[in-house]
Design a protein that fits this description.
Blueprint lengths: L26 E5 L15 E5 L3 E6 L5 E4 L17 H17 L7 H4 L14 E2 L24 E2 L7 E3 L10 E3 L1
Antiparallel strand pairs: 1-2, 2-3, 3-4, 5-6, 7-8
Length: about 180
């Protein structure tokens, strides 16, 4: 909208100029609250989607995920998330969604979005990257945890090598995630 109004985008503004996009790309859709007027289904229901012309991947963080073929199933009646024939599509869409969540610094991004039951090759993607908020000229400067000095951009630490495995909560007293 800003580009249409010939207004220059500020550095810390979210989004990008869609008029400048050369090739089609997916779109992220986020959903966090079921209903504002009442919350009989609970208050916090985190969902992220990646939608292209051909497919829609829906990650329901607390429940099961969904994958739909938008060309052949426009009413989204047949969930293909567990169909091995769509494993490559599912993986590419999942990677695109996670990349976009990192790019926009989605405040709810965490390893749970990457470690899905149908993604056996998944690894936690969040570990090691410390990305400060962009300097806006008003807020105090972001300081490094280790040195106390002002941050000089993105700091990437050595990623941990432990592998996380998903276990049923009743098998592990600390919850559903355990380092192997």
């Amino acid at each position: 909208m800003m580009a249409l109004a010939d207004i220059e985008k500020t550095r810390d503004s979210a989004g990008e100029n869609i008029l400048a996009v050369k090739e089609p790309r997916g779109v992220m859709v986020e959903f966090n609250r079921y209903e504002i007027e009442h919350d009989s289904f609970g208050g916090f229901i985190p969902v992220r989607c990646w939608v292209t012309d051909d497919f829609k991947l829906v990650l329901n963080l607390f429940t099961s995920d969904e994958l739909y073929d938008r060309r052949n199933d426009s009413n989204e009646m047949h969930n293909l998330i567990d169909d091995i024939r769509f494993a490559d599509v599912r993986r590419k869409m999942h990677d695109a969604l996670l990349d976009y969540m990192d790019k926009i610094r989605d405040p709810f991004r965490s390893y749970q979005w990457s470690l899905r039951p149908w993604r056996k090759d998944a690894r936690p993607r969040w570990m090691g990257a410390f990305r400060p908020r962009p300097q806006d000229g008003y807020s105090p400067v972001v300081r490094d945890y280790d040195t106390g000095l002002p941050i000089q951009g993105v700091k990437v630490e050595e990623k941990k090598t432990e592998v996380l495995t998903i276990m049923p909560a009743d098998e592990h007293p600390a919850g559903i995630i355990q380092a192997a």
